[in-house]
């Protein structure tokens, strides 16, 4: 008798007595049943009814079982299909299995054999759906854990940058401003989001090597001596060495290492020239210089935005990549807004 199964089965056959016989037997064993006389009517019913399994004859008028199977496979991936074939038409049965039928039975058939085939197909369907949902949920959990790990990593990185700003009070907010300018440049140049993330991380960390420089030198109120200047200028290499233990992405490491290279090859540490300099390092070089020029330093006052633009133009092709300078000159308004907002937020934090 009924086992309280809740699955609904669509029985498709052009012979009324077979439809009725199969439906009554399946109902007796606890299944809900609906019927259709051919593939066309079956497809119409599938649009409006929730069905777990289609049990279909192969040879039918209008739309046959093979065409019905193809449509179900392509449009209703969670519906199992069991085909019923004549004992003289094994080729069609094999074709049905190749297309994706869960099983097939041949006429004449025993009703108990048909029931067993239906139960096997529904069990296989259940396992396929559960497996797919398991992998989907697993992927979601992995994505969530990846986000959490990334957030922890970024928080740790920002803590490093903040530790530097504690040492060098005159550069408070500098890394954020440089990052903001670099991202404006990157977006204007059509860099995709994944690469922008790398540029962002590079900007936050570009001066991290200054952690190894004495506070007295970083905050010296007069110009640095040659020896002091050289001790500061090794910070790109120092930063790259520090981060090499934390970051696997060599593009980020190389950006930090080479953000003080000159476009004409007379920068440091390696004297790279033109396109030899990593692209992101060339962006940071411009962003870093612009914020440095427009910020107050222990030994000098900030210069105006207008004067800073003139300096970029003056050293275009010498210190800076001409294309990147042109982008900055195109984005003056938004760059100035980012810098002003960041400086105001720093002042508010100090006042508080």
UniProtKB/TrEMBL annotation:
It holds the Pfam family Response_reg. Keywords: Phosphoprotein, Transcription, Transcription regulation. Residues 171-293 form the HD domain. Residues 149-344 form the HD-GYP domain. It comes from the Bacteria. Signal peptide: none annotated. SMART domains: HDc, REC. The modification 4-aspartylphosphate is found at residue 57. The keyword Transcription applies. InterPro entries: CheY-like_superfamily (IPR011006), Cyclic_di-GMP/3'3'-cGAMP_PDE (IPR052020), HD/PDEase_dom (IPR003607), HD_domain (IPR006674), HD_GYP_dom (IPR037522), HDIG_dom (IPR006675), Sig_transdc_resp-reg_receiver (IPR001789). GO terms for biological process: phosphorelay signal transduction system. Residues 8-122 form the Response regulatory domain. This is Two-component system response regulator.
């Amino acid at each position: 008798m009924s086992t309280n199964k809740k699955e609904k089965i669509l029985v498709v056959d052009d012979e009324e007595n077979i439809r009725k016989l199969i439906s009554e037997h399946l109902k007796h064993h606890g299944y809900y049943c609906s019927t259709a006389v051919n593939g066309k009517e079956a497809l119409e019913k599938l649009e409006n009814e929730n069905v777990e399994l289609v049990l279909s004859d192969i040879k039918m008028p209008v739309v046959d079982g093979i065409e019905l199977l193809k449509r179900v496979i392509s449009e209703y991936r969670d519906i199992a299909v069991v085909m019923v074939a004549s004992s003289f038409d094994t080729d069609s049965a094999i074709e049905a299995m190749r297309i994706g039928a869960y099983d097939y039975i041949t006429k004449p058939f025993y009703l108990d054999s048909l029931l067993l085939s239906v139960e096997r197909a529904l069990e296989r369907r259940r396992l396929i759906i559960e497996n797919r949902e398991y992998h989907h949920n697993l992927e979601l959990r992995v994505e969530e854990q990846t986000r959490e790990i990334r957030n922890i990593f970024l928080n740790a990185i920002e803590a490093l940058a903040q530790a530097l700003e504690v040492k060098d009070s005159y550069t408070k907010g500098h890394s954020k401003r440089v990052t903001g300018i670099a991202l404006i440049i990157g977006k204007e140049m059509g860099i995709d989001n994944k690469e922008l993330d790398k540029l962002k991380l590079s900007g936050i960390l570009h001066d991290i090597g200054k952690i190894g420089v004495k506070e007295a030198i970083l905050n010296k109120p007069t110009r640095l001596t040659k020896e002091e200047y050289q001790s500061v200028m090794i910070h790109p290499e120092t930063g790259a060495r520090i981060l090499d233990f934390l970051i696997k992405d060599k593009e980020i490491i190389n950006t930090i290492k080479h953000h003080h290279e000159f476009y004409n090859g007379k920068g440091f540490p390696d004297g790279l020239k033109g396109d030899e300099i990593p692209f992101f390092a060339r962006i940071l070089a411009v962003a870093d210089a612009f914020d440095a020029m427009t910020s107050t330093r222990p030994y000098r006052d900030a210069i105006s935005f207008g004067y800073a633009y003139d300096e970029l133009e003056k050293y275009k092709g010498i210190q800076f990549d001409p294309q990147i300078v042109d982008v900055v000159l195109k984005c003056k308004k938004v760059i100035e807004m980012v810098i002003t907002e960041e400086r105001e937020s720093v002042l508010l934090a100090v006042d508080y």
